[in-house]
Amino acid sequence: MGNPIASHLLANGCEVLVYDRSDAAVAAMTQAGAKALPSVAAVADAAAIVFTSLPSPAVFSDVLLGQGGLAGGKAVKIVVDLSTVGSRATRHAGSVLLEHGIDLVDAPVSGGAAGAKAGTLAVMVAGREAAVAEVQPLLECFGKLFHVGPQAGQAQLLKLLNNMLSSTAFAITAEAFVAGVRGGLDPQVMMSAINAGSGRSGASQDKFMKQVLPRSFDFGFPVGSVCKDIGLAIEECEALGVPMWIGNTVRQLWNFAGRQDGMQRDMTELVRSIEDWSQGAR
Length: 282
Hints:
InterPro entries: 6-PGluconate_DH-like_C_sf (IPR008927), 6PGD_dom2 (IPR013328), 6PGDH_NADP-bd (IPR006115), HIBADH-like_NADP-bd (IPR029154), HIBADH-related (IPR015815), NAD(P)-bd_dom_sf (IPR036291)
Organism: Verticiella sediminum
CATH architecture of the largest domain: 3-Layer(aba) Sandwich
CATH topology of the largest domain: Rossmann fold
Pfam family, one: NAD_binding_11
CATH superfamily of the largest domain: NAD(P)-binding Rossmann-like Domain
Strand order of the largest sheet: 3-4-5
Protein name: NAD(P)-dependent oxidoreductase
Keywords: NAD, Oxidoreductase
Number of strands: 8
């Protein structure tokens, strides 16, 4: 996600400084016109506004608050986090950064790799008004903004709820799809009818039409990330006193699929897993 987002910033005339643990990711950005720096600390010492796109709460906390992290930077004044790491980690980081005179703008994105490349991401934004206003033109380079609230962490809750709904819709659609095919239905006709009726969803209209029916299974979001996000979502909801009967069942399904078939597989390959589990069943 970070590569296409940074590319949109470059295309809009921004000076972009980059650091990533992946040499290949850095090389791709320098070829596009960005300047590479050797560390997180170097970025924080050189840039007033720093964007982060990180894979887990632990990595997020380390990059923002750990030794050599953004909190100790000499130049940084606003950190814009595009990750999905949960409200607890975000609230804590926001509080610590503010003690260092740094604002945290909580700005998780939705829309997948395709939305990032097209610049059509949904950007859920929470943070202090002045900081959000300063970075809004930058965020609008790659998506549509939804102002959630004044506290970092509020956008995280919305993003997690969104991802939980998305992964739940895909899971139940996958089960229905496999059952229909095993029952002799034509896959194209079945999905066209569902998408014209009350059973349609973002999963049926997008992922099934673009990645499942062609059997490309290349949406660009791994099963492991689904498991991480739905786990964080359920923790947030249960902390709010909401009994997560359906959410917990869906989490079990995704975790089982990851353990059985691999956490790095594309999330749309859940269909293949369900097909395999269904072999011989009558």
